[in-house]
Amino acid sequence: MQRYKCKVAYDGSQFSGYQIQPNQRTVQGELEKALEKLHKGKETKVFASGRTDAGVHARGQMIHFDSPFSIPEEKWPVALNALLPDEISILEVEKAESDFHARFDVTGKEYRYFVYTSKVRDPFRRHYAYHYPYALNLVTIKKASQYLLGTHDFTSFCSAKTEVEDRVRELREIEVLEEGDMLVFRFVGNGFLYNMVRILVGTLLQIGAGEILSDEIPAILAKKDRIYAGKTAPPQGLYLWKVDYENNS
Amino acid sequence: MQRYKCKVAYDGSQFSGYQIQPNQRTVQGELEKALEKLHKGKETKVFASGRTDAGVHARGQMIHFDSPFSIPEEKWPVALNALLPDEISILEVEKAESDFHARFDVTGKEYRYFVYTSKVRDPFRRHYAYHYPYALNLVTIKKASQYLLGTHDFTSFCSAKTEVEDRVRELREIEVLEEGDMLVFRFVGNGFLYNMVRILVGTLLQIGAGEILSDEIPAILAKKDRIYAGKTAPPQGLYLWKVDYENNS
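Predict the joint structure of the above. Result:
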């Protein structure tokens, strides 16, 4: 058996999220179906760096799987893409050590969140960015970002349904880039909690709108309670952009 | 009654084209439904600069309609967009003379066709550009464009189903722009026949691939028969970009 490590992009808008679920169309479900076809009916389990929610996209999701086939690395994307729906694209495949694990070996992740601020909505971005046609103060957003940087308990910034006990995460980079009428929020960290990026963006937008003050961030973090942070921004603006492992990046 | 002239964008991927048809989801059907709601059940007919096929998009389709309401121009987009599906967006509305006609007054149109050439397909562009992952010679494409420029009988470059008798059209501009892995074909003319842009692009791609020679264009035009031109490029790459009238542009 050979372990393969694989970079995958997908348009999440028509999926019930990444993770396989009975009677739902999921990215994992489609990946495993394609691998099963390729392996002539033999079930092949796929392990990802983490799940993404319904409507959330990926430019650089990472997965691994094992195969008895020794297809050359560059042939794999063509072979798999022919068996996958066109909302999913295998971008790169490389051979990995047999103990490589797409989830347990993650050293960092980058998410991006796209917001567009034009007065009138754009039909071509309805599934791919969040339309926020109101005035935003970027100065206060950037000031708030500075408070969020670093290692904190992010309990206030994750879904109340979060099951994991340890909510301490390190946010290594937060950037807010303006590209025409598009605002791009870039988050790099060692790991992200359930809904964390969407709650961070929702809160930063409320700060930009003057509904929450930048200086309230330390107190919101200290409360360790979801109800103190802002709204959860909708899924369509969010992209899992890049996953880092020891040997790449 | 006041006549309104309106600029509309739509994502054509989920519509059976622009023109209203029984039991089909069409752009015109949705526009008329929204106007009927706004006018409390009174039917309102919409006239467009021309139709677009299933899967074809518009950034600058132009329509007109009459309304007894004297809503200020800047309030119209918000009022109508609230009643329209989010694949359609009213971008601008302005008052027009009572004899303005969105179709009969057209003096020129611009279409753009997007082709992307990356080796691996991109799930985010599947409905919005044509994936052509093969080598293309831009020099021969540009040479062929020069033969197409100007006033010609474009019978060879329109669907065999074209009903209009006069197939002489003036192509005023053809440009091929490279933007990263995207090729943008820009066509400006006084009018376009059924499938004309898609057949022009399909033929230019075959010229870029070496399957047809640039120098064959004059002979293809002279044949006045669809079978001599190249393939019809698929709809998802095509955008009605801009419509010109006497007083704008």
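The longest helix of chain A spans residues 196-208.
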